[in-house]
Specification:
It is built from 11 helices and 25 strands. With about 525 residues, the chain is α+β, with helices and mostly antiparallel strands. A 6-stranded mixed β-sheet has the order 1-17-13-12-11-16.
Length: about 525
């Protein structure tokens, strides 16, 4: 395996006054709730309110004939039209279709995400006027397929996606603004090491960053794409379901309408247990009233394993960063689920310091995305302070090859996880027969040497190789992994001056023609 020069460099931007330029917003496209923010004339981020006058928009939609209702109206419809509601589509990104059939139709999850973005976009335009550009956040642990799906969702929503940024990185930018460290490049401040613990509604990320003046450098990142507040909700749902089966032999999971309403009540109970020692879930069923009490202590006992999973990830991320807990300066909590008292207590216990709650857990990520948008738009404005951001990749990137000794397929890792981005890496392959005219390269993400245990990113078909090449002609495949986690592939045949054309065929990805059709449909149907 030949890995070339890393090509790493600081991406330098300058932050200027957005009022003198076109506007762009930052969008926190969350699993359960989403938010939009913009920089004001003082370069301070502020959250834009949706059409209901709220800072957060539920990430769900209800299909009502030709009309699609997104946000609070869809959340209310769960209790009456559950079969028409799509919730948490972010969890299904990377799959071909959403997990639930709606009105007899299956939708790609990125299309559902596009409806949410379209709603956020229209609400933002009502407040600040015409918009075309945005930065959208993604979990740090999202792989390349999910990142592309997010960008596709933005395109189908009619948005020019300037960039996608990791949620913990966005939160760290917001923290840096708040702490007044934005314009301190060149000063002799001691670097501060920050652990960002981001527990949202459906995903969990841990990122360790170093902030030195205006330089933001990610040291390591890890996470779980299927762990969030939704899982805590389900533990309460399961408790109530068990109680109903015990009392009257009724399984709520067999009644979609009732189970949708039950989830709303259980989510509310979880929120109440963050401020009260006890709560109750009350509802009517089969002509009877039920009142099931739940204490915070019992709730924490039933969900302790979920919290343990997050702490294990914290330990693993620190190990990847080469740090101990006592070397951290700040433990920063973001994500609405960090309001649970058990999270605060556990972080305090393992870190020996008080976790920082100076940012709004619901709005910090959107604020950081707005800062990133301002950086990009004002990158050519002279005389402003500089801000440097450096990320790492969350998954190793490799190529499936044949082991010459045992003839088994193996994952040859080209770019290891937690490599500083952007990075360029190269690997040389060889033609297997004389006059070979094409080769296929399978690209995977994952840490295992066994390709079956990794995620197939896609297949690169390299056609029209020059004729009459001898067997074992070297073919150099180059990866350029961008700071936002997107991949570019190029190919060079040794002895041939020009690079060959190719196409990366990704799994479960919509074609351009399909996206154009969905874009028109979304524009016509969004409320």
């Amino acid at each position: 395996m030949d890995v070339a020069e890393t090509g790493c460099h600081w991406f330098v931007c300058v932050l200027g006054m957005m009022c003198a330029m076109e506007s762009a917003v930052g969008i926190d496209l969350g699993t359960t709730y989403s938010a939009v923010a913009i920089l004001d004339q003082n370069n301070d981020p502020r959250t834009l309110l949706n059409s209901a006058g709220e800072p957060l928009t539920p990430s769900m939609m209800c299909f009502e004939g030709p009309r699609v209702v997104v946000g609070r109206g869809a959340a209310k419809a769960i209790s009456t039209q559950y079969e028409n509601v799509a919730d948490c589509p972010k969890r299904d990104l990377g799959e071909r279709v959403f997990r639930k059939v709606i009105n007899g139709r299956q939708y790609p999850p990125e299309v559902l995400q596009a409806w949410i973005l379209r709603k956020l976009w229209r609400d933002a335009q009502r407040q600040i006027g015409p918009l075309t550009k945005a930065v959208i956040t993604v979990p740090a642990y999202f792989d390349e397929v999910r990142r592309k799906a997010t960008m596709d969702a933005g395109w189908m929503a009619g948005i020019d996606v300037l960039d996608i940024i990791n949620e913990p990185t966005a939160a760290a930018l917001a923290f840096g603004i708040q702490q007044g460290r934005l314009f301190e490049i060149g000063q002799t401040n001691v670097p501060r090491r920050i652990l960002v613990y981001d527990l949202g509604g459906g995903t969990f990320d841990v990122t360790v960053m170093e902030i030195d003046g205006g330089q933001y450098r990610t040291l390591a990142t890890d996470g779980d794409m299927r762990l969030g507040g939704w899982d805590w909700d389900q533990r309460i749902v399961a408790l109530v379901a068990d109680e109903l089966v015990r009392r009257i032999g009724f399984d709520p999971f067999e009644d979609q309408q009732f189970s949708g309403n039950l989830w709303l009540k259980c989510e509310q109970a979880k929120r109440e247990l963050s401020i009260k020692a006890r709560t109750a879930i009350s509802f009517d069923l089969k002509g009877k009233s039920f009142h099931i009490e739940l204490s915070r202590e019992e709730f924490e006992t039933r969900t302790r394993d979920l919290l343990d999973r997050t702490m294990f990830t914290v330990e693993q991320t620190l190990q990847e960063a080469g740090l101990e807990m006592d070397q951290l300066d700040v433990v920063l909590m973001v994500g609405g689920s960090t309001r649970m008292p058990s999270v605060v207590r556990r972080l305090r216990s393992i870190s020996g310091k008080e976790p920082t709650r100076s940012l709004s857990p619901d709005e910090a990520v959107a604020h950081g995305a707005a800062i990133r948008a301002g950086m990009i738009l004002s990158s050519h404005v002279p005389g402003q302070g500089s801000l440097n951001v450096k990320n790492v990749n969350s998954h190793s990137l490799g190529v499936v090859g044949m082991d010459p000794d045992n003839k088994q397929h193996r994952n040859g890792i080209v770019i290891p996880r937690n490599t500083s981005l952007p990075v360029v890496a190269k690997r040389t392959f060889f033609t297997s027969k004389p006059n070979q005219r094409s080769i296929k390269v399978s690209i995977v993400e994952g840490e295992s040497a066994n390709p079956a245990d990794c995620s197939l990113l896609g297949k690169c078909s390299i056609e029209s190789i020059p004729r009459d090449l001898p067997v074992r002609t070297p073919i150099e495949v180059s990866f350029r992994y961008e700071e936002n986690g997107r991949l570019k592939v190029s190919v060079q045949v040794k002895g041939v001056d020009s690079r060959l054309t190719h196409q990366l065929h990704r799994e479960n990805t919509l074609t351009q023609e399909q996206m154009e059709g969905w874009r028109d449909f979304i524009d016509q149907s969004c409320e």
